[in-house]
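INPUT
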Amino acid sequence: MTKKPFYITTTLPYVNAEAHVGHALEFVRADVIARYKKLLGYDVFFNTGTDEHGIKIYQKAAQAHLDPQKYVDGISDKFREILPLLGISTDIKFVRTTDPHHVMAAQEFWKLANKNGLIYKKNYSIKYCVGCELEKTESELVDGRCPLHPLQEIEIINEENYFFRFSLYQKPLMDLYERGSSSDTNAESKNSFVIPNTRLNEIRAFVERGIEDFSISRLASKMPWGIPVPDDATQVMYVWFDALVNYVSTIGWPDDMVSFKKWWNETGGVVQYCGKDNLRQQSAMWQSMLMSVGLTPSKVIVINGFVTGEGGVKMSKSLGNTVDPIDVVREYGTDAFRYFVTKELHPFEDSPFTMEKFKETYNAGLANGIGNLTSRIMKMAADNLEKTDMPAPLSYEKLDSKEYFDAIEGFNLQKAMNVVWEKIAVLDQKIQKEKPFSLVKTDKEGGKKLITELVVSLGEVATFLLPLLPETAEKILTYIRENKMPESPLFLRK
RNA sequence: CGCGGGGUAGGGUAAUGGUAACCCACGAGGCUCAUAACCUCGGAUAUGUCGGUUCGACUCCGGCCCCCGCAACCA
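OUTPUT
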């Protein structure tokens, strides 16, 4: 029997800076879904990588007196190294937009869109501030002037760029948002095209208002760090056009169509995680690009909120309220980070991440919650049961909780975590009420039966946690299998 | 009148017309299997504000105040 395929990807982080907690959050959440699908028997393609072209990187490399390729090699490696620290599945695919195969794919994508008449060249007037020596967008200007150099006139520079006929896609995009997900009829695709719904409304309103063609190239003489435009050495691709193509290049498009069809068509499309700042690019621009080369749209776009500092203020180095995910993992462990990201941060909205809050919930949920529960149950088991009495673990798909499965299918990992912690609370109550530790003294058999029930329930909790806190889940299942109490606490109180 | 989201105990959230709930923090008891853990009970001056609809409004409608995004070629 062949397994059903499933394809999920994170957004490729742009490597103009090192990994921050927002990236880590997205890796973890996508990983939970990837593991979940694997546990249900799917054949999973899980993609991430790094987005490495564009002006910002070109400038950053110049500042560091590095060749751009050297510079991106360094940062890309750092992103790759953070993945195991976060407990990300080791079979994840890591694509780089400087990979030769990706470069080729982006160029083929361009050629095809061009052949289909969706690309044209036109004069593009750039607003340029001589003071800053930079292009400015309309929204950056105040009263038509650069706020940093209000005495200088903004210059208008004309430059020939290639444009993509985004404007042709208003109707098709509206249809896509209306009918929800792509053509497949799986139960899971009852989700709307963009999750959560408020983001779907937002993008729908944006497209409905009217959309304009956007430029997809830059003059190579000004900014050479990009993929060359086919048959025009004077231009390189605008970084968005190149980067978005990774979602198809990573699964083999255009040269390995067997692989591509499996992961793109048989799956009903890709599940894409991204931050709310990517809503427009992923749920509108990218979808129109796909249509332009005759490919079916993505399956669903899941939008994360931002991680903020205390009180919802933006994290920034100057405010000193940033959190380095690597530091957190070093101090508290991988699953502690995964716990916080999935259970304490809001699944779709902005959410504050402070170390105070982290420690508080670590102690409450992990040390006092699952950690303590494991110790108390396994102590009773180790003292009163034989290894041969230990119950066999439940298989994941046999777990019984519609609420839990519905929550994960809807990408609401917080809700799924709450279901599990509810079960933990019930077990603590049960121990208190039925006192198996006293019962074994008066009624050995009755006590053993009760303890066995508790072990079964603990095993169930661990199984529920397999996609969410894989390391912890495996540890607990091992203790059960070997009928041992943890030699040291699962989560030490901090 | 640019568009959108939001304002609920100290903090974080839930509740789409019917007793305002949950987690953390806080207080008092209890238990002894467990990591000063766990269980029970409890207290909170909690629905931004003013008005409307309704038997009944966090929920629906309108005004006002405040916060946060977006306003396309920065990713």
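end of record. The longest helix of chain A spans residues 355-384.
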